[in-house]
UniProtKB/TrEMBL annotation:
Entry keyword set: Membrane, Signal, Transmembrane, Transmembrane helix
UniProt name for this protein: IGSF5 protein
Chain ranges of the Ig-like domain: 4-114, 122-214
Signal peptide: 1-19
A UniProt-annotated Pfam family: Ig_3
PANTHER family per record: IMMUNOGLOBULIN SUPERFAMILY MEMBER 5 (PTHR44991)
Gene Ontology cellular component list: bicellular tight junction; cell surface
This protein's record includes keyword Lyase: no
Gene Ontology biological process terms from the UniProt entry: cell-cell adhesion
Transmembrane annotation, as ranges: 234-258
Amino acid sequence: MYLPTVVFFLLSGLGFCYSLLKGPTNATVLAGSEARFNCTVSVGWVVLIWLSNGMPVLTVTSSQGPIETSDRFTSQNYTSGNEITLELIIHNTQLSDSGKIECSIQQSSENNFAFLSVQVNGSLFIKNSTLTVKENKTVEIVCEALGWAPAPDITWMTNDSLIDKSRYVTHQSQGSNGLNNALSILTLTPTESEILTCLADIEALPNPQNATVTVIFINSTIENDYIEDNENTWVIVLAVVLSVVGIILLIVIIVVVVRCCCLKK
């Protein structure tokens, strides 16, 4: 049995003349980062026990300080006047850490708990970074998010302006290890070249993750002019080649005739 659990039961029947002044507040963090929770108690405190989802993870006493049994759960204290703030630090947070975080002073008190939400920032990509589209052509652009928790909120932008949600559809699915996937399909009929951005967001991210694709629009008039120019270029090249070949043949014929005349003499 873990030492914090032993201390928890040994002290459960004792009463102390101090009180909990302020409990912890909810926190949302990315997996692998730190989560911090504070409880403020009055002077005269003796022991405070931190619990995660009902299980003691760290005990702090006024005489010995924190009694640590795992390097993932540590503590530090702050004193201000007649108040002492005890901080729980959860290192390298994991999905399984999500849930209820309590600070117990072995007395009946309200607001002594908060909730931790650990989220996972997965991957986001669009298969093609560049897409060429002809006039009056409708295309579907697919943005895929893999390995998120929770499933991300997907939005699209074009040239830094939000695209209406009616123009794309997003499907969510359960992935491996309790993670989530999302597939967003944008239907587009371009009228000009533009840069499209797929954005994936969860609460713990300071900024949404993004993936971009450049859509190159080809106007039919421009395309026809290009084809016509190419055809004209080939005609000119062919004419020049035939002219050069004709001149060479003429020179060869002249040389042959002259040589034949010289041989007869």
